[in-house]
Amino acid sequence: MNSNDFILALRENVIGTLTKYYEQELNDFTPEYPPGWQLIAQWYNSLEPEQKAHFIEFIRTIQVDTISLVLGIFVGKDYLNEEQVELTLMAGEEVITGDLQDIFLEIEEDFLKKKLGL
User: Within the chain, where are the H helices?
Assistant: First the structure.
């Protein structure tokens, strides 16, 4: 697995899967949900469809920002507790190298351009 494949898989597993999961859970609200989920699900289900779409997009934005920050820490561009950390990622025997944060953000930018028809 190369860096690009790693980022694509990470993006799909985190953003793709979790965004769908959150949206489904919010739509399929049941009284057995934990109290925090109950409140947000009730609020979410009171929204108009366009407002729901904006909220799900906001969740997606939080995921993108979080992944970007973590990748920045992994490659030593961002600091963790004022310390620079650099980790080595491996897939099997292959080292995943490169500026993973930049690769992720480029892929995300391309996705948004396609989504907006640019």
Answer: 3-11, 17-27, 35-45, 49-74, 100-116
